[in-house]
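Side project, low priority. Logging it here so it doesn't get lost.
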Amino acid sequence: MAAVVLGFALLGVGCALAPAGAATPAAAGSACHSTQCGLQEAADSLVGSPSGPPGVIVVVQRGAAVTAVSAGVADLVTRRAITVDDEMRLASVSKAFSGAAALALVSSGQLALGDTIGMRLPHLPRRWWGVTLGELLGHTSGIPDFSQQPSFIDELLGSLLTPPPPVELLDSVECLPLLFPPGSSFAYSNSDNVIVGLMVEAVTGASYPSVLQSQVFGPMGLADTSLPTDETIPSPFVHGYQIAPPGPAEDVSNLFAAGWTWAAGGVVSTPADTTRFIRAYVAGRTIDPATRRAQFHFVPGSSEPPGPGANAAGLAIFRYTTRCGVVYGHTGNTAGYTQFAASNSTGSRSVTVSVNSQITPKTDGPLFQQLRDLYTLGVCAALS
C-alpha cells in the first residue's frame, strides 16, 4: 500500500441554476454569469493541474437558487461526473456535526458549556477533568491530538478496517501532559471532538449516531447523511484518490474504517445534504439564541486545512473573512477527500466545495493555494 496521509484535522460540465436540492448542469451552449464562469474555469484548472484531483464539485446557493459547477470525474473507471447527490467522506467537516449535536443538548438543558470532563467522563485522565465542553468545542482544551501520535498511527496502519471503541482512540494521549492550561490558547485537536461525542453519549444514555439522528439529521432533513463505523460508503459515491505523479492515481475510498475518526471525522454525506446542513447550522436553527451567541465568540485559530481568507475559531465553527465578505463553516481533509462548507450568518447564502483527493499545504502547497482560491471564488459567488 502506498503511503497515505490520514489528515483528520485527519467534471466537465457548465454552470447551472435550479431550485434548491435539484441543481443540474446547464445544457451545452447555455450562458452563465461571470462569477459562474470564473468558478468553472477555476474548477477546470484545478483538475487539469499535474497533481490535481480527478474531480471537484462546487455548490453555491443564494436563497432558493442553486448553482452546481463541476469538473472531472467521480470515478476514474466509469468516468462518471460528480453530482450533488453523490456520497463522500466529509472528514473534519464532521466536527461541525458534533458541535451541532452538543449545542442542541446545551439548548435543551441536558448539557452546559461549562460542564467539565470530570463531571461527565470521570474515567478519563484526571489531568483533563477541568476541561469544559466549551473548551473542547473551541479547541482550547490543551489536550494533545491523538491522530498525530506515532503509536496511534502504527495501530491504525496495522488494522485499517477494524477500529477500536471510540474511547480507545484517546489511548495514545492519555499519559501526555496538556499542551497549555485549558482556555489559554488554541490548538486544533481531533481528541476534542471524540471527547465531545463521549460527553453526548454520557448525558443522553444513547449512542452518538442515534443522537446525531435525533438532534441533527432528522431536524435538518438530512436523509443522505450518516456516521458509519466501517469502511463502506453508500452508493452512488465519489471515489477518493491518492495522487502521486508520475505514478497512477490510487483509489483509497475504502482504505480505512470511519470508526478510526468517529465524531472527529467519520460523517459521510452528499454535497446537497452538506449544503442543507451548513445553512441550518450556521443560522442556529436547532439552538437557542444564547447558545448561538456563545458559539460565535471567536479567537485566533485556523481550521485544518485553512479555509479562505483570515480564519478565526468559534465553538465547532470557523469564521472566514474574505475579500468578498464573511462566511462561517468548516474544512476537512482525509485520505482521498478535501472538503469546505460555509454560509453567511443567516444561512441564506452558502458554498460547499468537494474534491476527491487529499490536498493540504503539507502535501502540495501550490495546489492547495489553487484550491483555496477556488474556495474564495465560491464565497464571492455566494455573497455577490
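Brief comment: The two ends are 45 Å apart (CA to CA).
Revisit when time allows.
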